[in-house]
Design goal:
Blueprint (H helix, E strand, L loop, with lengths): L2 E4 L6 H9 L3 E4 L1 H18 L25 H12 L3 E4 L2 H15 L8 H12 L3 E2 L2 E3 L8 H11 L4 E3 L5 E3 H7 L11 H6 L3 H31 L9 H5 L4 H14 L19 H4 L1 H23 L7 E4 L5 E4 L7 H29 L22 H17 L21 H31 L8 H12 L12 H12 L2 H10 L4
């Protein structure tokens, strides 16, 4: 089984995905446990002093003005978890909760939060046992961290609330911990706050969205190339020298992908055979420019994610010097703006990529613009409707993607009696991006389905070797070819699974080699 080692210096996107989506086992490094212990000594020293320290001996948020006596501090930390575990709505997906917990563990292990080693060890044990706290859709404003989602996770650490076991059944957390020999944690000074005050949920969703979008951008380049072939377009617009004079790296990468997929095609360059066509429509000719802009946006999002993965987000934080002494300082690093912005940027890019893919699909189905293809790619147009309603479905998803592109990060609803008077809404941005990514995959699947059928209807013309490999793999995956009208949903579902699994990219790369 793959293992992920948690160190005091941060983590990687690959590690997040391995824990969130796989069965990677977590190991705590000696340097992480040493850093945690050093920070805890600072907290213990401050807790013994009469001076109020936020998070250690005071209330929270707008209630930070109250000094909390030592005998009430365990109750204080327990109460913040219970009161903040106030989420509502549907359950959040298992992979999101695991990413959230792992990223919180990463920050706890940084030696900046002041928790005891037992807190870090217990959280790692819960993840390794496959226990997943029940977290709800609503409860985070993306500032002061993803408070309600993280609180539901902290509740499990205390042996309270509900969680999902490795068998998928939801049960009381206390039962699940007992079954796996995990002792619930009684929280002490600073620990309740440290478990809640991070941008971990939105960051986890950003990391996974970046991985998914990287595959979908490659997939979209492949389906754009197939549509270009099916429409007898020209690949001359993909020449490297044309893209070098507008040096956006994403644009060059997309153009190169398309050119490699089209290498050896017998369909390209026929755009003057049926009627004079000086150049192809924008949805064909500008495919690298649109997909490339999305690729560059994705590159920026990954840069932000990498910075966050190296960060320790908490308030207050413990700063320990080389002598071992330290201090606790309040800060605003929990504000989710850096993450929220790129989550919104990615939703915009996803919507536009879907939009141009839908325009290519529509062109394939319109006999007035498809250059010789039958109406709606039907076997007997009029008796058969062909792929008419597949495009309706695609258009409906594109319309939703456009609504999801409205940014969440420009909104702010003040909270905590105006102490927290500007929030990021990054969690909301992340939730809608997940929906957008799913829909983008479906939109690309519909284009694949239409372009594959159109190419197979071009009698006497031989598609590129990479295209032939894609068509063969798609048919093997259950995406059926041309024919009379039939129940279409299973074909679309098979196409979606083919795209989502990476089968489309793998089929093309079996001929082209690795694509960007």
């Amino acid at each position: 089984m793959h293992s992920v080692v948690v160190r005091s210096s941060g983590t990687t996107a690959d590690d997040v995905i391995a824990v969130a989506r796989g069965a990677a086992r977590i190991e705590l490094s000696a340097d992480a446990l040493s850093a945690v212990a050093a920070a805890r000594r600072v907290v213990d020293e401050l807790a013994a002093k009469p001076d109020p320290v936020y998070g250690v001996s005071t209330g929270f948020g707008a209630l930070a003005v109250r000094h909390i006596s030592p005998e009430l501090r365990t109750r204080l930390q327990r109460n913040i978890v219970r009161s903040h575990a106030a989420g509502m709505g549907p359950r959040v997906e298992r992979e999101v909760v695991r990413a959230l917990m792992f990223l919180r563990l990463k920050t706890l292990a940084s030696g900046r939060t002041g928790v005891r080693p037992v807190v870090v060890e217990t959280m790692a044990a819960i993840l390794n046992a496959g226990i997943t706290p029940v977290v709800h859709e609503y409860g985070s404003l993306g500032c002061s961290g993803d408070l309600a989602p993280l609180s539901h996770c902290a509740l499990t650490l205390m042996g309270e609330g509900d969680a999902e076991g490795p068998d998928g059944r939801v049960r009381p957390a206390a039962e699940l911990l007992a079954e796996h020999g995990i002792e619930p944690v009684e929280l002490r000074e600073k620990e309740g706050l440290a478990l809640l005050n991070g941008t971990d949920g939105m960051l986890g969703m950003l990391v996974m969205a970046c991985a998914d979008l990287a595959r979908l951008y490659t997939s979209a380049d492949i389906t754009a190339a197939l549509s270009l072939e099916a429409l007898l377009g020209t690949d001359k617009v993909l020449a490297p020298e044309l893209h070098a004079i507008r040096p956006h790296p994403g644009q060059a990468a997309s153009a190169d992908n398309m050119l490699r997929v089209l290498d050896g095609s017998g369909l390209t360059g026929h755009h003057q055979d049926d009627a004079p066509r000086v150049q192809d429509a924008y949805s064909i000719r500008c495919a690298p420019q649109v997909a490339g802009a999305g690729r560059d946006t994705l590159a920026h999002a990954r840069l932000v994610a990498d910075r966050e993965l190296a960060a320790a987000v908490d308030n207050p934080v413990v700063l320990v010097d080389e002598s071992g002494s330290g201090r606790v300082e309040s800060n605003g690093n929990f504000h989710g703006a850096p993450v929220a912005y790129v989550l919104d940027f990615l939703a915009i890019a996803a919507a536009d990529l879907a939009s141009i893919a839908e325009r290519r699909t529509d062109r394939l189905l319109d006999k007035n613009r498809s250059h010789g293809l039958p109406p709606f790619l039907a076997a007997d147009a009029g008796v058969d409707s062909g792929l008419m309603i597949a495009q309706y479905t695609q258009a409906a998803m594109v319309s939703e993607l456009k609504r999801l592109a409205a940014p969440a990060s420009v909104d702010s609803i003040p909270s905590s009696a105006m102490q927290e008077d500007h929030v990021s809404m990054g969690w909301s941005a992340a939730r809608k991006l997940r929906t957008a990514v799913d829909n983008l995959g479906r939109v690309i699947a519909v284009e694949l389905f239409a372009a594959a059928r159109a190419i197979e209807l071009r009698d006497g013309l031989t598609p590129a070797p990479a295209t032939r490999a894609v068509l063969a793999a798609a048919r093997e995956a259950g995406v059926r070819g041309p024919g009379e009208d039939r129940f279409l949903a299973p074909d679309l579902a098979a196409a979606e699974a083919f795209v989502r699994s990476g089968g489309l990219v793998a089929a093309a790369e079996s001929v082209t080699g690795p694509l960007a």
